[in-house]
Specification:
By secondary structure, this protein is of the alpha/beta class. The protein folds into two domains: 42-245, Rossmann fold, CATH 3.40.50.300; 253-303, no CATH class. 44% of the residues lie in helices and 12% in strands. It is built from 14 helices and seven strands. The protein has helices at 2-10, 14-26, 31-38, 58-71, 94-98, 126-135, 155-158, 173-177, 198-211, 232-244, 247-261, 266-273, 278-285, 293-303; strands spanning 46-51, 76-82, 108-114, 140-144, 161-165, 187-190, 220-223. A seven-stranded parallel sheet has the order 3-2-4-1-5-6-7, sandwiched between helices. α1 (2-10) crosses α2, α1 packs across α3 and α2 packs across α3 (31-38). 43% of the residues are buried.
Length: 309
């Protein structure tokens, strides 16, 4: 059954994609065979992470970006990580409600997943859900985290481009985010920029960016009003520039290093162990060295497509 389901996922059949995600999210018996079979078909999607404090307008901006990508001829998938219901453990679905205008479009797939108590702003199986959507042929996968604070920075490990929303009204805006979220952003989005304090937020962000040295991509600041769509096209252009710069791909290696060093590589280890090339990797690196960090890093590079198979 999993072989047939995988073929339907690869063909982009929506019901099959939904069923595969459910299997992966709930870690059923079907999950491992599905992930193994789709492994050769992942690594094509551009993964865009959207994070920020509660009330920043993440869902509204995500909806606006979906519309912009559709106008550019893209197929778009969204993984909206919601808080878990204290009764059922499922996603509360607040994010999906705000993106309802796109639900009926065949080029769009929106999935709410429950955080289920997982810290870091994501769900434990978020990386595997992204893989399913990637294999199904969605060119852009947007991952929206739960309302995040200084420590919820896990999206930095999964996304190629990271947006951090910095709306006016947080008090000391930069102080509110600088210890965690501020450090992972590729693009800072001053959403709700029609509010009076938006100019001050933009100045503070630009000042802090100016104090730091960057060897590659230098973060941008983009102003948006997601409710009206103002600035969304300019944001999409900034994202495209980031993707074209090569920094997104170059940054993956460092993110994999951090992930391995943090010991949070369960999803990556599962992917590596399912590789058909694992035996060759063992031979190449030495059977006794496949557990070394460098060997895992090379295997990880294979997984994310930094080396040719």
């Amino acid at each position: 059954m999993s072989a047939e389901l995988t073929q339907r996922v690869l063909a982009g059949e929506r019901r099959a994609v939904a069923r595969a995600i459910s299997a992966v999210e709930n870690e059923t018996a079907e999950a491992a065979p599905i992930l193994q079979r789709i492994n050769a078909h992942v690594g094509r999607a551009r993964v865009l992470g959207i994070t920020g404090p509660p009330g920043a307008g993440k869902s509204t901006l995500t909806s606006a970006l979906i519309g912009e990508y559709l106008r550019r001829g893209e197929r778009v998938a969204v993984v909206a990580v919601d808080p878990s219901s204290p009764l059922s453990g499922g996603a509360i679905l607040g994010d999906r409600i705000r993106m309802g205008a796109h639900q009926s479009d065949e080029r769009v797939f929106i999935r709410s997943v429950a955080s289920r108590g997982h810290l870091g702003g994501l769900s434990r199986t978020a990386a595997r859900v992204i893989d399913v959507l990637d294999a199904a042929g969605f060119g852009v996968v947007i991952v929206e985290t739960v309302g995040a604070g200084q420590a919820e920075v896990e999206i930095g490990l999964l996304a190629d481009t990271r947006l951090v929303l910095c709306p006016p009204g947080l008090g000391d805006e930069v102080q509110a985010i600088k210890a965690g979220l501020f450090e992972i952003a590729d693009i800072y989005v001053v959403n709700k920029s029609d509010l009076p304090a938006a100019d001050a937020v933009e100045r503070e962000l630009l000042a802090v960016i100016g104090l730091r040295a960057y060897s590659g991509w230098k973060p941008r600041v983009v102003r948006t009003v997601a409710t009206s769509g103002e600035g969304v096209a300019a944001l999409a252009e900034a994202i495209a520039e980031r993707e074209a710069s090569g920094s997104a791909r170059a940054g993956r290696r460092e993110r994999i290093r951090r992930l391995l060093a943090a010991g949070a590589a369960d999803w990556l280890r599962a992917r590596i162990e399912s590789l058909p090339e694992l035996d060759q990797l063992c031979d190449a690196f030495g059977r006794g060295e496949i557990e070394s960090q460098e060997a895992w890093l090379r295997a990880a590079a294979l997984v994310i497509g930094e080396t040719k198979k």
